[in-house]
Structures are given as C-alpha cells and as structure tokens.
Amino acid sequence: MTANEKANIASFLDLAGDYLSGGFRRPREGYAFADDPADKKNPADAKFPAETESLPELPAVTETTEQSPTGEGDSLEAVAAEIAACTRCGLCSTRTNAVPGEGMRRPLVMVIGEGPGADEDETGRPFVGRAGQLLDRMLDSKGRIGLSRNSNCYIANIIKCRPPGNRTPQPDEITACVSYLVRQIKILKPRVILAAGNTAVKTLLDSTEGITRLRGTFTFFRGTLLMDADFNIPLLPTFHPSALLRDESLKAPVWEDMKALRAKLCELDGDYAARMADIPL
Ligand code: SF4
Fold this sequence. Notes:
single chain; alpha/beta; Uracil-DNA Glycosylase, subunit E; 6-stranded mixed beta sheet; 6 strands; 9% strand; elongated; binds iron/sulfur cluster
C-alpha cells in the first residue's frame, strides 16, 4: 500500500471518529506514512503470466540405468555408452578403448569370450586379432556351420577392457564388469550361447570345473545366478580360439563342438535348419 492510500484511510477514520464523538472536527498533525516495501506488497497485486505466454521448457527425459528383468527399455547403445565411460575397476586406467561387443540383434548365437586383447583394445572391436580371425573361420567353417557376426551372431566378452599383458581377469574385475554382459544377454536374447574358454564358462555357469571337462556338452545358462530373470538359454562350452592357436590338437574337439552347435540350431530354428538342409557337414 502506498503512503497516500494509508493517509486517506487514516483521514477517513479520524473523520468518522470525530463524527461519532460529537461532530466537531479536531485539528491534527499531517500523516507520516511510507510506501510498503516491494516484498510486502499484497500478493493479489502480483503479475501473472498472460495466457499466451509459453510455459518454460521441461527438462528432457533421460534414459536411466534401471532396467526391467527382461531387458525391456534397455538398449545396446545405452550399455555401450556406459561401458565407454566406466571406471568401476582399475582396467579403465590402462585401456585405450573399451570393447562392448558387436554383431546382430536377436542373434542365433552369442559368442562370449574372456576379454579384449591388444588388437581389440586398439580398435574397440571384439575378436579382431588372430584369435578373432580363427573364431570367424570356426563359426562359418566354409559355410558348413554358416554363422557370422555379420549375419546371425553377436560377439562379446566377460570383461570389456583389456587386462595388462593379456593376463586372466581377476575376480573383482569380473564382478565389477559382468552386469554389462548380463544386460546385453537380456537385450539380445540369443537362441544359443557359445562360451569360449575357461573364464567365460566358469563365470556363466558359476562352475569350478575346467573347460576340458565341460566342453562339447550343452547345458543351460539359466541366468538365475547372474540375472534377476530365468532365461534358460542353451549354452555350449568350447575352447577359446587363442587356445587353438597355441595347441593345434584342440582343433578336432572344437570341430565336434561346431557340429553340435549346428545340430542344436537346426532343432531350435526352422529358418536355419532349412538353410543348412542341403549343406553337408
Ligand atoms: S573392465 Fe568393465 S568394470 Fe572394468 S573399467 Fe572396463 S567396463 Fe568398467
């Protein structure tokens, strides 16, 4: 309220008082009021935005890392972005590039190895060195297995950054990293997992048995140990391709594993079975 408005009200009240107390107007000093401070003004005087004024921009909805048990709402791109920025374990300080994985969505086969080597660290792609080239040859086997990361496979590792000197990943590094792989499995929902090498097999099956005993026999990756949903994905343990580069004698058992993989895929996938029907082993 302004000083002038207050003076008018005071004058009116004085006049009314004089009238009620006999009708004689008594002389008075001038009124000394000040305007109310700005922040004490009547809220009713506040200026509201006109209806035509636009509302302020709402903040963009950002993707969160909280995911459903079945991978709904998650994406390979979101997982890869988190891996690229990850500092959960010490391997972040020695990597050149993190290596999330690559291949097809909804693959027939998800190949899971141990971790990136020097070539993978340099390129950010999985299985691109000599072992990776051998893996590509194993998966295709001159068309007799008919699998490829370019058409029906996805390739990833248990851990996403290279351990120095290609040493075996330590348990705390696997514990820190494995949730990225779990999210990838949930998103991709492969028909079959091919677990290559000891680290992959032991981690995925929570087994202390070595690869030599477990290879060649299908089991199920039920996921209940690592995932909060029961996935029942057939899993075939086999030797890591880098082991074949060191020991040629492992090629024969791996070929048996590839034939078992083809037979399982023929059972599970009619399109694959039809494609392979005229291709002899
Ligand atoms: S290895 Fe896995 S947990 Fe460790 S820094 Fe790389 S992405 Fe993160």
